[in-house]
Specification:
Blueprint (H helix, E strand, L loop, with lengths): L3 E5 L2 E5 L3 E2 L1 H18 L3 E5 L5 E2 L1 H16 L3 E5 L3 H10 L1 H4 L1 E2 L6
Parallel strand pairs: 2-4, 3-5, 4-6, 6-7
Antiparallel strand pairs: 1-2
Helix pairs in contact: 1-2
Length: 106
């Protein structure tokens, strides 16, 4: 599965799929890491406009990307969270690691 993304000026916007489960989270993790290295990314923006479901694998993937970016002084942002994904961010503590913004600057 290939994921849609945009890269511009050190920022990488990844359009999250409709469902982020163990299979898609693993693939998304690998692809995101390759893109981070390829484009020398300073900020990842995860766009959750189409995401309806995310399990603990997706949460783990986001935590991992947050740590990876933190090691290099980068950041991770999330945009377009629907109420369900917003609740997952709140209950899991992702809001403490990842900035939830209304609009991104890409």
């Amino acid at each position: 599965m290939d994921f849609l993304y945009e890269s511009k000026k050190g920022k990488l916007r990844i359009f999250a799929p409709e469902e982020i489960d163990e299979c898609t989270a693993s693939k998304l993790r690998v692809e995101a890491d390759e893109l981070i290295d390829l484009y020398q990314v300073r900020c990842i923006i995860f766009d959750f406009a189409k995401t309806e479901f995310m399990d603990s694998s997706g949460i783990g993937m986001l935590i991992g990307r947050s740590r990876k970016m933190g090691y290099s002084g980068g950041s991770v942002e999330a945009v377009n969270l629907n109420p369900r994904v917003q609740k997952i961010f709140e209950l899991s503590g992702l809001k403490k690691l990842i900035s939830v913004v209304k609009e991104d600057n890409l």
